[in-house]
Amino acid sequence: MTLPPALVAPVDLAPLWLIERAARTIFSGVLRAHPDLFERLGEYRQTRYLFCPSDLPLNFLVVPAAKTVHVSRKAQRPVSDACIEGPLVLLLGLMEGRCDADALFFSRELSVTGDMEAMLALRNALDDSAIDLPDEIGSLAGPLAPLVAGAARYVRKRALEGRDATWS
Amino acid sequence: MELICPAGTPSAFREAVDAGADAVYCGFRDETNARNFPGLNFSRPELKDSIGYARKRGVQTFVALNTFMRAGHEQLWYEAADDAVALGADALILADFGLMAYVADKYPDQRLHVSVQASASNRDAIQFLVEAFGAKRVVLPRILTVQDIARLTRQIACEVEVFAFGGLCVMAEGRCSLSSYATGKSPNMNGVCSPASHVKYRRDGDTMVSELGAYTINRFGPDEASGYPTLCKGRFEIGETHGYAFEDPVSLDVVDHIDALREAGVSALKIEGRQRGKAYVAEVVSSLKKALSAEPAERSALVARLRAMSEGQRTTSGAYDKRWR
Questions:
Q1: Distance from the CA of A62 to the CA of which of A21, A25, A144, B142 falls in 20 to 30 A?
Q2: b/e per residue, B230-241, with b = 16+ CB within 10 A?
Q3: Which of chain B's residues have a Cβ under 8 Å away from the Cβ of A122?
Q4: B135, B280: one domain
Q5: How high is the ipTM of this complex?
C-alpha cells in the first residue's frame, strides 16, 4: 500500500523543521523506551541510516548514537552509510517487526544499498525491540493518549491489512 | 514428528514457542554459531530467560554450537558448551568432533545432536558419532531423497531430523567453500555464508544488481523476485549459456512429503531461518504446526501463503524427490 496523494500533499507543504521536530520526538521516545535496541546495534549505532519512503517527498537520516533525525526533501539526498527505500507503511511495519524484511526484499518492495552489515544489525535490533508506534505516538498526546493511540492502531491495521504476520 | 523452530532473537524465540514449536534452536552471539550475523543471536542472560520461557510451556531449547573450532582458540567453544549446559539447554547441536568429545566426556548426560554442518550423511559416519560421543540425533543435509533417508534411518541407532521448510542449501553442508573463494571467509569457521560485509546491492537502471566480494551474483529485472546473494543461487554466463549454475533462488518446502518422511522414520522436522524476523517465524511455525495435524489434501493450502515470504517467492521439495537425470 502506498500513501494516497491527499496525505502526501500536506507533507510537501509543511515546513521541514516541523516534520523534523515531530520525527525527533517520536525517535527519542522509542530510544528511551527501548534501550535494548542500542545494545543489539553494537558498533553500528554510529551508522548514518537513511530511510527513503518511496511514496513521500522526504528522506530521514538517522544516527542512533547521536540520537538525531535529519529530514530533507527528496531532491536533496544526504550522504549515508546504509539506505533503505520502500513505501512508508512497510518501513514502519519493519520498524515494529510486523513485516519480514527478507520477504519484502524478495518481492522487490524494499531496496537496500550501502553497508549491509549495518543494515542487518538495524533490522535485527528493531525486530527484537517490540516497538509499538501507536503507543509511542499516543504517549505524546497527554490526556488524549488512549484516543490517539487507538486511532493510530486503526490506521496501522488498515494500512497493513494482509501484510503483517499473525504474531502475538 | 517434532517441529524444531528457529530463533535469532529473544522476540523470535517467544513467537516460535507461542506458535507451537516443540523445540526452538538458537545460538550465542559469536563465531561458535553458524548464523553469526550482526545484531542477531543471544547473550547468556537472554538465553537463560528464553530457556525459562520455553520450559514453562513444555518446549525444549537446542543450542547450536555448530562451527568448527579454530586451532589455538578452542576455549571459546568449550566455554560456550559449558554455559549452554549450565543454562539448561535440552540439547547441544554440534559439528566439530573435538567439541563433541569435550561435551561427551565432561557432560555424559547432556543430549548431543549432530549438526548438519558435520556433514554426517552415511551409516558409518553417523554410527561412529553415536558410538564415540553418544549422539542422540543427526540432522541430515538437504541433498538426500526420501528413499535415501528411509534407508539410512533403518541402519543407524539415533534419531533423524530433516529440514522441512526455509532456505535451501544445495551443498553438502560443512563442506562448502564457495563463500570462502569469493570473500576469504568460510561459513564453517567464521559462522556466516555470504558475509554481509562483502555483500553489495546497487541499481543499474531498473535492474537490481547483487554482488559478493568482486563477483556479480545476479541481476534482477524490475518485476523479478529476488534471492539471497549466495554463489550457489547465482546467475552466470557459462560458455554459451546464461543462467543458474547450481540452483534458482528458491526455498525448501517438503510439506507434501510429511507422511513419507514419517514413514521413513524421521523424528523431527526442522524449519530453517534463524536470520529471519519474528513475523516470519510466527507465520511459518503456526502454518507448519497446522499442516502436521491436517489431512494430506489440506496441507498445501495451509502453507501456500508462505511462498510469498520465500526466497525468489517460490518453493521446491529439492532433493527430497529428486528425479536423477
A1: A144
A2: bbbbbbeeeeee
A3: 39
A4: yes
A5: 0.89
Same domain, B233 and B102: no
SS3 A7: helix
Question: Which residues in chain B have Cβ-Cβ distances shorter than 8 Å to A129?
Answer: 11
| Contact pairs from chain A to chain B, CB under 8 Å | 119
Q: Are residues B126 and B269 in the same domain?
A: yes
- Which residue carries 518485476 as its cell? B223
Query: Do the chains contact at A168 and B15, CB–CB below 8 Å?
Result: yes
The answer, for A64 touching chain B at a CB cutoff of 8 Å, is no
Is A62 inside any structural domain?
Answer: yes
Could you give the CA distance from residue B89 to residue B93 in angstroms, rounded to a whole number? 10
Q: Which of B15, B199, B278, B284 to mutate to probe the A interface, most A CBs <10 Å? A: B278
Residue B258 sits in the same domain as residue B200? no
Q: How many structural domains is chain A composed of? A: 1
Asked if the C-beta of A81 comes within 8 angstroms of chain B's C-beta atoms, the answer is: no
Percent of chain B whose predicted confidence (pLDDT) is above 90 = 71
Confidence at residue B325, expressed as pLDDT on a 0 to 100 scale: 46
Give contacts of B19 with chain A, Cβ < 8 Å. 167-168
Q: What is the tally of structural domains in chain B?
A: 2
Mean pLDDT of A80-101: 91
Q: Which grid cell is B60?
A: 525444549
Residue ending a domain, among B220, B244, B268, is B244
